[in-house]
Amino acid sequence: MRRLAASTLALALAAGSAQARPVQFAAEAPRAGAVVLPLASEADLATRGAALDPAVREAVRRALTAARFEYKTGKMLNLRGLGGYEQIVVLGAAGAQAPAALQDLGGLARRETADADGAVAVMAEGLDAAELAIGAELGGYAYPGLKAPEKRKPSQAPLVIVGGQAAQARAAFDSRGAALAEGVRLTRDLISEPSNIKTPQWFADRTREAFRGVPGVTVEVFDEAELARRGMNAILSVGMGSTRPPRLVIVEYKGPGATGRPVVITGKGITFDAGGVSIKPAAGMWRMRTDMSGAAAAMGTVLSLAKSRAPVHVVAVGAMAENMPGGGAARPGDVVRAYGGKSMERINTDAEGRVVLADAIAYSDERWKPAALFSVATLTGAVGTALGDDYAGLFSRHDGLAAQVQTAAATSGEAVWRLPLHASLAEDLKSPVADIRDVVEGGGAGASVGAHVIGFFADPATPWAHLDIAAVAWSNEAQPTAPKGARGWGVRLLDRFVRDFDPARVN
């Protein structure tokens, strides 16, 4: 199969990642199928289990007592054979009022009833049904992939969020939640695609398709000739070892009533990272197809905001390249001049993320004079050593901006931990032949070093923040709102940030 045909096939498959079990809202529960009861205490059974037959409700109560059920979030009890229902699932819901906690409940409800043939009723009286629905949509994600079709088709019966305010919940979900789930799904699809198909040009084509017909959106793609014309030699340097040339993918959305300078989100977009001449070990290299998770998150965020018609101005910039050790590849010790004129000595070609982002950051800063400028990247293993897989690393020179990111993180459930940018890093990264080096020889604080290099290419006065998502972009085990694999991390956080952003509070 020719490469063009393979790309076309993959594009069609990736675009078809619809959810098998649709999410609906209703004031009354179906009388068959499966039931999910989110309970913060035994007293909730009387309200959220009111639609159950009294004998069934009493059987559930006895089962909870016998199991000494704890009503904490994350606890569950799965009951079968009661009152003709396929299953009744009790989920601990104590303290589950924040959006992220409610989304986790929705995701668990979807996951624990995945094998039910009939409708699934989530009894949500008194809970934010729209947030539960977002979680159910996210929890039901499955990468469309390239596998042969399964013999057992997923159920098409709905997952129904049941509560007295069904119409209002539907409206709230339609106004924001559905678009947010779509943005996360796009991000996961982009990350999961194998790299024999996922080239920089494929990413550009897939992005155009995702935004086709969305009001207020413009899409630009710079090919290698345009990158050279504009002096974006850093991105070109990273792509020299590959037969698949780099691209810069730009999506700009200006919503109704939006004024002022935009928030710009630049993302590392390495469609495969072999390390270049500084080649990586073979073990685990397959996961380097995910090294464009930052660019994917940037695109998913803007899709969420644009599809929900948010009154904001936001730009996503994906710095796309493939980092391979071909005959034309960059060498350790090479010097490249990035957009705007600053030069970088490349000591380690496996530190390519900060290199492509140098062009993206410098160009974005000059073109848009952003109210806030982000870099998002699977940048360093060091951030995982420091923080594990519970937090992304947050870096910023602007305390007010960092505080707004931390607030959005707490609300969205995508946690960050702020790490330092010490003044000594400038001395550590001095080069005898260029304005800066890409790494500190002999080690150093790897995550902070990478962030400092990226920030070097932004005007110090520009409110800039960097998110190192290397340890959170992919999960080896299922999460309540994500299966094993690509998490789509960053879309919920950045969507929340942009909606709530106050440019007066960045310093």
In short, what is this structure?
This protein is an alpha/beta fold and 507 residues long.
Features:
single chain, 507 residues, Aminopeptidase, 2 domains, eight-stranded mixed sheet, six-stranded mixed sheet, disordered N terminus
Domain module tally: 2
Which strands sit side by side, in order, in the main sheet? 7-8-10-9-13-17-14-15
- Globular, elongated, flat, extended or rod-shaped: what is the shape? elongated
CATH class of the largest domain: Alpha Beta
Query: What helical percentage do the residues reach?
Result: 25-40%
Report mean pLDDT, rounded to a whole number: 94
CATH topological fold name of the largest domain:
Aminopeptidase
What is the makeup of the main sheet? 8 strands, mixed
Low-confidence segments: 1-18
Q: What is the strand content?
A: 15-25%
Structural class: alpha/beta
Number of helices: 16
CATH architecture of the largest domain: 3-Layer(aba) Sandwich
Strand segment tally: 19
